[in-house]
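Worked example

This section walks through a single chain of length 287. The input is the sequence exactly as stored; nothing has been trimmed or padded.
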Amino acid sequence: MFAVTGVTGKVGGTVAHALLTAGCPVRAVLRDPGKSEAWAARGCEIAIAGADNAAELTQAFTGVEAAFVMLPPIFDPTPGFQEGKEMIASLRAALLQTKLSKIVVLSTIGADAQQPNLLNQLGFLEHAPAELPAPISFLRAAWFMENAALDLASARNAGVIQSYLQPLDKPFPMVTTEDVGRVAAELLLENSSGHHVVELEGPRRVSPDDLAKAFANALGRPVKSEIVLRERWEALFREEGMRNPTPRMQMIDGFNAGWIEFAQHGANARKGIRPINDVIAALANQK
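Given that input, the structure is written out below as tokens.
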């Protein structure tokens, strides 16, 4: 039996789907009982557990062989990442109690960065289970290609995408959530020992100009990329409702400056399958 957290999201849902397709029994771990029906209909056991509730997580992991675990995304954290630290503490307590035989942890590129930024909370997550004897794979995923969904309206309506990633011709490591979930399921099924990091990016790196070209191909109209000036970032993020945009700005700085990067520029990273053109075409076809 495999426990899968985050099944209502794209990555966790793909992990569960891949395991079910392989004939593996799955316990779907989710916070909202109202979203459990579809997974129960597919034959999953259901466990209801909040990410900050150690007792519920312990119950969810009890009696399973292995687990895929992740934090809910926190894009606008309070200073000091208090919410993330509380969830990490709950997860750590549950993992210590249940003594699973294998764990796959969804992490991120930049989890090892020492500079302050939004991804530090995934670094905290990687350190939390350090004393566990079970094999643990920390899956450091690149920037999600699906983030480009935020650019669809402006690409379609104005023929422009506004880019915080810059310079516009710089290729950045990106990957689809589908590839992340697929590889996470593979890691759960692989034989491994010890604690190790697995880096994952797409088949090739993607620049903002590449994104614009992909939108142009998908929409059948000219699309160009434009830089969002650094001095405008904070005001724009606060207009979106963010209360603490500094960690997000620091993260983008890290990508742009190159200190958020895979080891040896991804020379040893696993490569995903889906290219950016496929992802953008799928986004453009959504109603």
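What to look for: DSSP finds eleven helices and twelve strands in the chain.
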